[in-house]
Design brief:
This protein is of the alpha+beta class. Helix content is 56%, strand content 12%. β4 (179-182) and β5 form a beta hairpin. The chain binds flavin-adenine dinucleotide (FAD).
Length: 604
Amino acid sequence: MAQEIADRRDIDFVIWEQMKAEEILTNEKFSDFNKKTCEMIITEARKLAIKEALPTLAEGDREGVCFEDGKVKVPKCFHKVHELILEGEWQNLQVPVEMGGQGAPPFVATAAAEYFMGANWSLYSYAAMGNGTAEMIELYGTEEQKKKYIKRLTSGEWGGTMLLTESEAGSDVGALTTMAKKNDDGTYTLTGNKIFITNGEFDLVENIIHPVLARIEGAPVGTKGISLFIVPKYFVNDDGSLGDRNDIVCTGVEEKHGIHASATCSMGLGAKGECIGYLLGEKNKGMRIMFHMMNGARMATGLQALAYASSAYMLAVNYARERIQGRDLSDFGNHEAPSVPIIKHPDVRRNLMWMKSHLDGMRSFFYYMTMCGTKAVIAEKEEEKEMANDMFELLTPLIKDFLSVKGHEICIQAMQIYGGAGYTMDYPVEQYARDCKITSVFEGTSGIQAMDLLGRKLGMKKGGVFMAFMGEIQKTVAQAKEVEATKDFAEKVEAAVNRLGEIAMHLGKKALSLEFKTAFAHSLPFLYAMSDTVMAWMLLWRASVAAPKMEKAGKKDRAFYEGQLKTADFFINSILPETMGKMNAIEIATSAAIEMPDEGFGGL
Ligand SMILES: Cc1cc2nc3c(=O)[nH]c(=O)nc-3n(C[C@H](O)[C@H](O)[C@H](O)COP(=O)(O)OP(=O)(O)OC[C@H]3O[C@@H](n4cnc5c(N)ncnc54)[C@H](O)[C@@H]3O)c2cc1C
């Protein structure tokens, strides 16, 4: 049987039953799509991902990328599958038709991308990263820039990147030193060095378009003086043909813990003094443009982690069904009793439940965010648009960091289910764990997401957005209270969300007081407590959709729906109490981490 990478029944449940995606399809923007076509697209994406992309996962990992004379070769097995992805235009499903994409509803693109990322994220990202570059040009570029670059980026014919990081400017992008000097013809000459650039150079495309952050000579220090430039690897002539090579080169690739098949490049700009860039948007407004792109990139990173976790979970649950080891606990002492699959052991079941409850909550949360992103654009009423946009903004640090961190933990727990085999490279779970670790680092580390939540997001509209978020949970709680099977869960989720409100107020006040450092030392635990509450909300929502359907469901569906109730039960009764404990700790808000003398950390 082919390895499964995501639970299709669960994806369908979230899309059609929980999120009621058919309502979105009534919008004229998606008039070319109906439920059947959407399902077909997801089915085909799954087929291609499992049949063609998945077999390149381990091979790509072992071979890695090869750097020689400024060129980067991707694993050999990537070439054919990359072509197949581009032929089917799988990389641009949700890109608007005017930009050369297919204009599919974003939830369809999410499902397809979950399959491709779970099969081989490194491979898929070579095809898909051009979309982010194209979107920036669409929003801020001149007509000429749009005509030159967009369609060849979204078609995957050319690659796209994001050049922010420098050796002294990582989390603090404002410290960057790459300089841009204006030329008489209006172009700019750039000089500097960037590091850790994903897909900065690779041999699957004929050209790469680099968006580069740099400071124009004389611009203010910090983020206020940063501009964004389009720096093509090869210049593009007016007729669209490729011209000379630009002075931007890859100077090396990183050896890494995971994503070995993804090229992480150091890039030298202007070693010969001839790196030409074109200003994108207004000067000194580069960070604003980049932030726009970063929201999308942070969502994509959350999905990347979800996809790894989903694949690792599918492997673990199937392994647990097949691996025979030990007797059933009720046969303890009976040496004649047969050995059983490990899925029969209570602790293995607990672990699978821990993984599944997080994974289900994460998937629902991701689709909720996808829907918010969609409604923020297509909703008819202004207040609906605003609400969707507010939720999207508030919850972006959670989708980025919580999914990354829990996704990684799920992969680690999948290794645990495999026992010793999970620690070997004979099985793919250890690769998923290695590959997943990067998600809590790039696109803003955990610490940076937590600062964003406490420092910027909690206070949006004087706390009104956070209140509206609590109101959304309360709506689900009210509905779940009407159903006998979910009433008890609803009361517990209600208690958690009320407590979260108190803690948010408490920490928010502290962040504005003289004890602000202590508040920020608790910002990541707060992000996790809030994320746990979101998980409980999502699982309660799932359970309240499933409960009324159980009676009339056939055997398979009945097990699925019952699974929703059991999963909510598990999370709400065994994880949410831990979350209440985390909230108590945040309320105490010890200042120990701040007051600790630097020498007290030891090791001197
Ligand atoms: C595989 C890979 C691919 C990447 N791809 C790209 C890419 O395509 N384009 C690109 O521009 N960059 C890319 N990056 C860079 C990545 O975004 C940075 O590594 C990341 O933002 C962290 O920066 P840093 O490594 O300099 O760590 P630092 O900024 O030095 O951070 C070190 C630690 O300190 C913490 N920290 C730092 N400042 C603060 C603060 N103010 N408050 C609280 N905590 C703080 C961080 O959370 C982290 O734990 C990539 C990195 C890797 C490893």
